[in-house]
Write a structure and sequence with these properties.
Elements lengths: L1 E13 L17 E2 L6 H4 L5 E3 L2 E13 L4 E13 L11 E10 L19 E9 L7 E3 L4 H4 L1 E11 L3 E13 L1 H21 L8 H15 L1
Antiparallel strand pairs: 1-5, 2-4, 3-6, 4-5, 6-10, 7-9, 8-10, 9-10
Helix pairs in contact: 3-4
């Protein structure tokens, strides 16, 4: 299956080559904010990240700031479509893991280490991988019922893969659980009612053909 996430894709890294004097050290700025048209990948070193299970990635407005110690922060509006292995054999009691697997396209772990925000380098779970404010969906419970009240925050998980050299793969994820009552009330009950209407045609006098045909067409007209 596929799912599209809309939000903000944010990266943090430190490049000592970009360090400069703050106002306390005689400089002019405490934070350098790049112009809106600035694309970090065109002007400075970046981790060159890609999404391993990504299908499409539409980028919008972006922001790049550089701190006096060379810390870089980038944030960009993004609409990302992900490919997932979703199984629906337990409908209406199904549960799915929505995840995004990130890695550097050109640099192994000797050059760049991936981790969630405030996380630790190396394999394991730590930091803040994905976070959101209050979010609610009529079909799914997102990270349990608490997300509808106060949002959620999930950690990131790093796995080191060996491709001749070690590469860090960072996975950020959250879980969704189907709201059973919604599916039963809005899909299953209606399907059963339509099926009952269709079967009623068998109890109509065979000599009244138009009536039998009408009984079969009624569910189709209702769906339109």
């Amino acid at each position: 299956g596929q799912i599209t996430l809309n939000g903000y894709f944010r990266q943090y890294w430190k490049d000592p080559r970009l360090a400069y004097n703050s106002t306390n050290d005689g400089g002019c700025l405490n934070t350098l904010t790049m112009p809106e048209a600035f694309r970090a990948v065109d002007h400075i070193w970046t981790p060159n990240l890609y999404i391993d299970n990504g299908v499409a990635w539409r980028r919008g407005a972006s922001l790049t700031t550089v701190s006096p110690d060379g810390s870089v922060f980038t944030s960009e509006e993004a609409s990302i479509t992900l490919k997932l292995n979703m199984r629906f054999d337990r409908i209406p009691f199904d549960q799915h893991k929505v995840f995004m697997e990130l890695a550097s396209y050109s640099m192994d772990s000797d050059t760049v280490r991936l981790m969630a925000k405030d996380g630790k380098a190396g394999a394991g779970t730590s930091g803040i991988g994905m976070t959101t404010t209050k979010i609610e969906d009529p079909v799914w419970w997102i990270e349990g019922r608490e997300a509808a009240k106060s949002g959620f925050s999930t950690p990131g998980e790093v796995v080191v893969k060996d491709f001749g050299s070690d590469w860090d793969y960072l996975t950020v994820s959250f879980e969704v659980t189907r709201r059973t009552k919604y599916l039963v009330d809005n899909v299953l009950l209606q399907d059963l009612m339509f099926l009952a209407v269709c079967y009623m045609g068998f109890f109509v006098d065979p000599g009244v053909a138009p009536a039998r045909a009408a009984m079969a067409v009624i569910p189709v007209l209702i769906m339109r």
